[in-house]
């Protein structure tokens, strides 16, 4: 009887260990972004897209490496660089080797420096940084490192494409630049000034200012200054609640010109702007939604909306992150050796279901892809945002934007 009891205990322990090992075999990706505070809706929708992409593109297809699944582990950084570093350490302590983040280049700058330092000091627990939306050009220039990969076009690439469209508007004479006061907002402003001076030296920049990020409750004073300046167009890199606040204030204050943006769609922004922004808001982005890039993308979009009726795929690049990571892990034959995975990502060409080919430029780990300029409208829209009836319709495309753009990156490889 004692032996039987002992055997049962051993069997139960073996089952528990086996179940734990099976769970531990999942390839975990830490999602470090705001899940509370003024930018919670942006972070939460991004999290849902990562979770769905992992299931739809990897887990439901049999996983990678013969059946291993992806698991997204969420960490709320409250949009704080300091909090992000705490959550990064928690993730590393949990054995997570892949870090995804995108909201705030200030956070991304803190993370990439910390990850570079950690990997130099801890070669047995190295991690990769999958940057899906933080677009400060410095991250793939002077601050580049081997462990950081950017899956979004940087602010300079986006502004280059956006100002191509603006430069073609002969009626454009005066431009006002406004953005959030941190590294990304400053990068957008600098790129706008540089590109406009080169492409349209006759255009006058009548305003160039920054405001505190996530703290302005009433944008009316800014809107009044913009209108008083006589600006024909506005350029802003604002996102989240700051994009809603600025956009609504401009329109409600009587501004009638085009507003050129980076992040003015989805996560409640489209619904908040609605009819008033029709034909007014223009957006630089990657991925074809209207018209959709492929039948595969259409199926993914419909499946996501069935699971998240109140959400949208407004960051299709998240699916590219998951797809390219899966391809890199398969190519490396391992998920544990992140150096081998990184070497697979370098120079990778990837056919995105959202349209076009992607190229991970090896010299700086900057993704190169098609860039689209679209307009906020309810006409010819197959997929709207925020259940609003409004979406973004592509008007023009720059193929493989800035493929040969210079970089100051001096990559040091392990």
Structure description:
Residues 27-373 form the Leucine-binding protein domain. The chain has 414 residues and is of the alpha/beta class. α9 (269-273) links the parallel β9 (259-261) and β10 (281-285). Helix content is 40%, strand content 19%. A seven-stranded mixed sheet has the order 7-6-8-9-10-14-15, sandwiched between helices. It contains twelve helices and 15 strands.
Give the DSSP E fraction (strand runs of 2 or more residues). 15-25%
Rounded to the nearest angstrom, the distance between the terminal CA atoms is 58 Å
What is the percent of helical residues?
25-40%
* Poorly predicted sequence stretches spanning 5 or more consecutive residues: 1-24
In round numbers, the mean pLDDT is 93
Annotated CATH homologous superfamily of the largest domain: Response regulator
Domains (count): 2
What would you say the CATH architecture of the largest domain is?
Answer: 3-Layer(aba) Sandwich
Q: How is this fold's topology laid out?
A:
Layout: H1 2-24, E1 27-33, H2 40-57, E2 70-76, H3 81-93, E3 98-101, H4 105-121, E4 128-131, E5 148-150, H5 155-167, E6 174-180, H6 183-199, E7 204-211, H7 220-228, E8 233-236, H8 241-252, E9 259-261, H9 269-273, E10 281-285, H10 295-307, H11 317-332, H12 338-345, E11 349-351, E12 357-361, E13 366-368, E14 371-377, E15 391-398
Parallel strand pairs: 1-2, 1-3, 3-4, 4-5, 6-7, 6-8, 8-9, 9-10
Antiparallel strand pairs: 10-14, 11-12, 12-13, 14-15
């Amino acid at each position: 009887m004692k032996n039987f009891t002992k055997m049962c205990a051993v069997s139960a322990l073996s089952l528990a260990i086996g179940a734990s090992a099976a769970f531990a075999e999942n390839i975990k990706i830490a999602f470090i972004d705001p899940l509370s505070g003024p930018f919670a809706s942006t972070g939460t929708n991004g999290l849902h897209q990562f979770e769905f992409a992992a299931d739809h593109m990897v887990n439901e297809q049999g996983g990678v490496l013969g059946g291993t699944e992806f698991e997204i582990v969420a960490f709320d950084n409250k949009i704080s660089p300091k909090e992000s570093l705490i959550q990064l350490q928690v993730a590393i302590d949990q054995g997570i080797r892949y870090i995804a983040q995108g909201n705030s280049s200030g956070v991304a700058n803190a993370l990439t420096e910390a990850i570079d330092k950690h990997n130099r000091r801890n070669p047995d627990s190295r991690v990769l940084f999958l940057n899906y939306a933080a677009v400060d050009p410095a991250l793939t220039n002077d601050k580049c490192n081997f462990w950081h990969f950017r899956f979004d076009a940087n602010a300079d690439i986006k502004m280059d494409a956006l100002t191509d469209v603006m430069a073609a508007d002969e009626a454009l004479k005066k431009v006002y630049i406004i953005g959030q006061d941190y590294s990304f907002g400053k990068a957008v402003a600098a790129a706008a000034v540089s590109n406009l001076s080169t492409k349209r030296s006759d255009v006058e920049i009548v305003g160039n200012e920054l405001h505190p990020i996530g703290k302005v409750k009433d944008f009316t004073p800014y809107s009044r200054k913009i209108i008083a300046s006589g600006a024909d167009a506005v350029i802003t890199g604002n996102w989240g609640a700051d994009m809603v606040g600025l956009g609504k204030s401009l329109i409600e204050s009587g501004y009638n010109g085009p507003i050129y943006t980076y992040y003015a769609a989805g996560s409640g922004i489209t619904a908040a702007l609605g009819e008033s922004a029709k034909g007014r808001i223009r957006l630089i982005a990657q991925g074809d939604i209207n018209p959709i890039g492929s039948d595969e993308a259409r199926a993914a979009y419909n499946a996501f909306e069935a699971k998240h009726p109140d959400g949208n795929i407004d960051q299709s690049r998240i699916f590219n992150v998951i797809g390219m990571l899966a391809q890199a892990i398969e190519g490396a034959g391992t998920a544990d050796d992140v150096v081998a995975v990184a070497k697979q990502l370098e120079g990778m060409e990837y056919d995105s279901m959202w349209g076009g080919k992607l190229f991970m430029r090896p010299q700086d780990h900057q993704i190169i892809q098609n860039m689209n300029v679209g307009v906020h409208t309810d006409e010819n829209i197959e997929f709207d945002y925020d259940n609003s009836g409004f979406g973004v319709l592509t008007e023009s495309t720059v193929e493989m934007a800035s493929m040969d753009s210079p970089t100051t990156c001096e990559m040091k490889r392990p």
